[in-house]
Amino acid sequence: MNRTGRLATSSGSNPAAARELVPEVRHPTVTRKVTQSNIRTMTDGDENGGEIQRASDVGSADAPPIEEKPYKIIFEANKCFGAGKCAEVSGNWEMSLASGIAKPNTYFIDEADLDHNVRAAEICPAKKDEGCIHVIDRRTDEEIAPDPHGDGTLSVDW
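Structure tokens predicted for Ferredoxin (158 residues):
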């Protein structure tokens, strides 16, 4: 195979037949350069130099009312390595065949969906078993799971 994932063919072979035998596989990668200015716009440039300090500092611009969906998920997709344990225990999580990592169907959840999302966060083996799925109580701004520090502080690696 060559670098593009296609079967290398000689001048005498049939490239179309080779593609039928070995389909091209592409793994889309989404990258975003995180800069201090990006962080400041997400946090309104608070007195902490624009650093994210609370769970409410991220992803709440288009959130439903807290009364409807009192919990939110913060997912560190860049730390996910595709073990799939979250998708095994929670219907909210699906594995993407294209990217090889999981993703939630929704980031804002109610009481009915809390238990299985907490389980997904607790079972995630990423980050040396600290997980890359974080379930946050939007009413108190505390991390419910995985909460490796045991004090409700956000355990995200920015």
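Confidence is low (pLDDT under 50) at residues 1-48.
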